[in-house]
Amino acid sequence: MRIGIYAFDGITMFHLAVPQMVFDEVTRQGLASWETFLFSDRKGSVSTAEGYRIEGVLGLTPAAQADVVVVPSWFDDGRDFGARAERVLVEAHARGATVVGLCLGALPVVESGLLEGRPAVTHWQAFDLLRARHPELTVDDSVLYIDHGDVLTSAGTASGLDACLHLVRTRLGAAAANQIARSLVIAPHREGGQAQYVERPLPREAGDDAISRTLQWAAEHLEEELTVTSLASVVHLSTRTFLREFRAVTGSTPAAWVRARRLDEARRLLETTSLPIERIAEACGMGSAVTLRQNFAAAYGTTPSGYRRQFGDRTGT
């Protein structure tokens, strides 16, 4: 798979490096043959915000052959992307490539008309700008990324790592994404969105510590019945206090977090074992194969058996 990453004068090294680091690691780990390249409005070089000059940047034409086109960032004033570069996004999308806008890179993707009224996410500091320009667009601060299959947008800065790992997960499976995450020493999956950072930049340490202990305990007891009461009792909090702290720290609800972890575990078992679906449902706390199938279909648009057929061979099952 060829992945074209748009570079421009003034981009930060971090934004430019995120998709390269994640996607190139796929090849370094021997999981698949993925190739990244940088392209821009003109062939040659770009100067980063830190003052470095990066050579070997391709022009716009090679992006026509990319399977994925990534805009990793953009200017915070939302200036015009340029007709030629915008046309690259539109034409790539039209021929079936996935278009990705990370952080403020979501702005050019939206401006290109590729979302057609579908929800998007970007850095929280650009919410007002995006809403003013596109009042018909739903801007969601409750998630770190939104994947429509053909177009993916992510929240601010480090959320680009989450979005890129998600792309690895959808193409190569949960086990591959977990391997990449371990290699890069980052979380394979994070819950919540940007609201927690907008409302409360510095979390309370005591609450964070209690919730962290609960999350670790819950991840080790997925086969058990995990109610709000049982989770709160782990750290000796009232249910009201626990719910408030959980939302503040994770940006999610306990039920949503537990369901996502159980589905993650189900995918891992489907990829790496030959256990029957009923046994997997029990092991991840879904209770029955019917419940697992219902939740799996709602989350991924496929059945557990279909998922195993698609990803099982990649992990040696």
From TrEMBL:
InterPro entries: Class_I_gatase-like, DJ-1/PfpI, Homeodomain-like_sf, HTH_AraC, HTH_AraC-typ_CS, INH-QAR. PROSITE patterns: HTH_ARAC_FAMILY_1, HTH_ARAC_FAMILY_2. The keyword DNA-binding applies. Pfam families: DJ-1_PfpI, HTH_18. Residues 212-310 form the HTH araC/xylS-type domain. It comes from the Bacteria. Keywords: DNA-binding, Transcription, Transcription regulation. This is Transcriptional regulator GlxA family with amidase domain. It comes from Brachybacterium fresconis.
